[in-house]
Design brief:
The chain is mostly beta strands. It contains 1 helix and 7 strands, in the order αβββββββ. A 7-stranded antiparallel sheet has the order 5-4-1-2-3-7-6, with helices on one face. The radius of gyration is 16 Å and the shape is elongated.
């Protein structure tokens, strides 16, 4: 059985605050030939786990796989928006592109999102 209370305690005690950057595609700009994007940033706590061994020296690694469980609540107490594969996680001076998302739910309530 999934225990959301234990997961929330783990994230709150051992997690770090990261920035979830949601990218929304806008209109096509005929002058530049590009689609404009609007970014919305959210502060949320997350816990990194099962890091690929290639990221042991994260400061010198250009690519690798990191996994994170993201809290269901933002730092301001509102619900965390659904993460998708166009979003980014910013922590420190690093930016990580989300490639996969699994949402853990109990009936209609989202318990967490695993990236």
């Amino acid at each position: 059985m999934f225990d959301a209370a234990s997961l929330r305690a783990l994230i709150n005690e051992h997690g770090i605050t990261v920035t979830l950057r949601k990218k929304v595609a806008g209109a096509y700009n005929t002058t530049t030939g590009k689609v404009t994007h609007t970014n919305t940033d959210y502060a949320v706590k997350g816990y990194f786990f099962n890091n690929d061994p290639s990221v042991a020296e994260f400061n010198t690694t250009m690519m690798g796989e990191r996994r994170m469980v993201l809290s269901d609540k933002l730092d301001n107490g509102s619900d965390t928006p659904e993460v998708d594969a166009t979003d980014e996680i910013l922590f420190g001076s690093k930016t990580t592109t989300v490639t996969r998302v699994t949402k853990i739910s109990s009936y209609t309530s989202t318990m967490c999102q695993m990236l």
